[in-house]
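# nightly structure sweep
# worker-07 picked up a monomer target from the shared queue
# config: single-sequence mode, recycle default, output format = structure tokens
# input follows
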Amino acid sequence: MAETISTQMRSMSLEVPPTSLNPQNQPKEKPKKRLPVVCYGSTRPITDLRFTAEFEHEGGAYYLITCSKDNSVLLRDGQSGDWVGSFKGHKGAVWSAVLDSRATLALSASGDFTAKLWDAYQGTLLGTIQHKHVVRCAEFGGKDEDSLYLGGMDGALRSWDIRAWKQIAEHKYDQAIKHLVWTPGGTAILTLGDAPKFCVYDPRTCQLEREVKVGESGKVRQVILSTDRQTLIVTHSNQVSLYDANTLEPHSENPSFKASMDLACAAYHKPSSQLVVAGVNSLDSQLIDLNTGETQFVGKGHTGPIHGIGFSPDGRLFGSGSEDGTVRLWPTNLEEHGFWTVRSLPIGTQNTARGSPIHPPHRRTPSPSPLTQSPLSRSRTPLGQGKSQPYRKPQNQISSTNGTEKTNWRRIS
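# output follows
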């Protein structure tokens, strides 16, 4: 009897629950989520967003410039979204902001009837150009980027010499100029009103040379270059058309993409054949693989329509600027979820290009730069009569209880 009981106990101890033998019943690993870096600092809608190229002399860093209807232009670290500085001086909504190829100068166009040129190292105002109407767009041009091109809502196109600080030419069109693009090959492009076309103009006289149709109907809502400046991206109706920036011929690999909704803006990264789009009045951005036409990812979280979108030069992330006044930076690689590793110089090392140690930008105080004056003002008198203003912190910057400042971005989980 005792032997029978001990045998039963041994058999019971060797029994294994059936759930552990069936892998289908095992708890599944939760899929990884793409978490954005949310950049605060603007109190009104974002109107434009642009990344710069990578700068090897700054450790592979790149920058992000945004503008808003709260009259401000913000410069950020493109990899982390850290605030670097603000350009303060406009008295109306800023519709366009762009950096030159060396990120030494910044140009902004505003609803206060002015365009302003800034020193991107120190944040100081170099000059102001007065207009008779709202300045809708602005762009650097010329062989050495020594010219400015400004387009107004009244149809006036003006070219401006930076070195001599005087107007070169002006031409009046019968429709508002909403976009200006200067290609690497020296082709000057603009859009007139909402017609389904873009126009090529003579940069010497600002007069129209030819038109390129992009469709039979629908509005052209955006014309912009890719971050590598090799592809012209035209967003019209529910379609994105891609052109070679040098020849203006349709892109050989992926000439166009059609969506199921009207599109407001788009960005393209050629090495990965990825396209990111946002619809009109849409709160979400979509990352699309052009080789397969499939949607890889949908970025959610904005509480207002998206007005600007762009890829970083390395393609590791894309940014979206919204009506809610925030910029969201999304990783394009699912493995780099959450707050991804930033490729930058170690804290405390000397950044010879920017002229100060690399510290968190929100703790950086303006320090004397090796460039005591603008690179373009060394051989001439200072530009304009505008008052110089140093970088200022966003109005909604907050401090913690121990007195140390917090950044104006945070991770959303």
